[in-house]
Amino acid sequence: MRWLPLFLCLSLPIAGRAQNGPFQMEQSRTTASLRGIHAVGGGVAWASGTSGTVLRTEDAGFVWQSCAMPPGAEKLDFRGVWAWDAMTAIVMSSGPGDQSRLYKTTDGCVNWKLLLTNPDKEGFWDGIAFSDSRNGYLLGDPVDGRIVLLRTGDGGLHWTEVISAGLSVGAASTGFFAASNSSMVLTAPVMADTAVGDIGLPWLGTGSAKAVDDGKWHGPFVLEGDFDCAVSAAPRQCLQKFRFTKQNVPLAGGANEAGVFSLALQYSHGRLREVMAVGGNYKDPNGVAGTSAWSLRGGKWTLSLKPPHGFRSAVAYDPQTGAWVCAGPNGSDFSRDDGRTWQPLDNGNWNAISLPWFVGPNGRIGKLVSLPTASQKPQ
Predict the structure, then answer these.
(1) Total domain count for the chain?
(2) Residue 99 — φ and ψ, nearest 5°?
(3) What are phi and psi of 129, to 5 degrees?
(4) Least packed by Cβ within 10 Å: which of 92, 254, 280, 359?
């Protein structure tokens, strides 16, 4: 959705890493607004933001390296980044028309290849996610009455449109938010085929929709993707047949700036247990009404009894602690009871999460190093 607030890698030593409550604050050495963050594991993470900015760390944040800028990206806003290791990553810029682009590096961000430029002048890309090194999805706002959802099976080199009646919005005014690269989330792989790889299914969180027939605002919604065929009988054919189930989510709505901003999934013993949605109205950063809702196994959505302490653009589940965390421009919150109630974590300005990393404006990067216990007072 059109919400736009706001050469060789250079390694520089860090003089110190300050502790700020539960966060270890990093020295990114950039003033870019960061909205893309992806923790790969093993100390490797990538971040991205405004003015063609891409960063990476190979040592758990002791050094954040400033990457070579992708060609022609000086004015691009990289809202999403997806990485596989210290050498390979894709960055997605968000903007109207050809300002939405994909670039890929396979040599640790020394060089970049332009993979795709949005061909629709009315288009706007909102999110990118992969289920393995080959299979992924690219989400964009509706064009000509249809949600733009593209799929790749070769690591982003080629993309094909996902065709489904469930992606039709008609003339309704709706879209997605490119606030944290998490308005789309993929399920754990539901199809594993040696020829095509591991395939996850896309779940999409929308903004509100203003219907043409009654002029009223509806939603926001979550669209749950699934294969529209028998996977066990014809796995490859299923890649061309999707269906989407739409569910109303009781988050704040009623305007273009309100709805679902972020989705996250929790698994238990390999099975989906809970889905969390956060958002609200980004023009009301301190508003608490309708900022968090949860669903068990994709069932009925329920509002949190005690919501986060403001609009939230990102949410994540930490299996190590069994806690949920979420963040937005007036701070972050955590929940130890599956999102029923939230407690403040800090009051910093954040945009996106890929645990243990939080990123925000002015090059802000924090590493979550601790969560308060029941007897501790959040900071």
Answers:
(1) 1
(2) -80, -10
(3) -155, 150
(4) 254
For 266, phi then psi, to 5°, come to: -115, 130
- Any domain includes 221: no
In which domain, by residue range, is 100 found?
32-123
The mean per-residue pLDDT over the stretch 58-80 comes to 97
Tell me if 42 is assigned to some domain: yes
Distance between CA atoms of residues 292 and 368, nearest Å? 21
Mean pLDDT of 289-316: 96
Query: pLDDT by residue (tens digit) across 129-162?
Result: 999 999 999 999 999 989 999 999 999 999 999 9
Cα first-last separation, the chain: 33
**What's the CA gap between 226 and 179, in Å, rounded?**
25
Half-sphere exposure of 219 (CA within 13 A, CB side): 28
Residue with tokens 């095509």: 196
Is 61 inside any structural domain?
A: yes
pTM, two decimal places = 0.92
Q: Report yes or no on 364 lying in a domain.
A: no
User: What's the CATH code of the domain at 93?
Assistant: 2.40.10
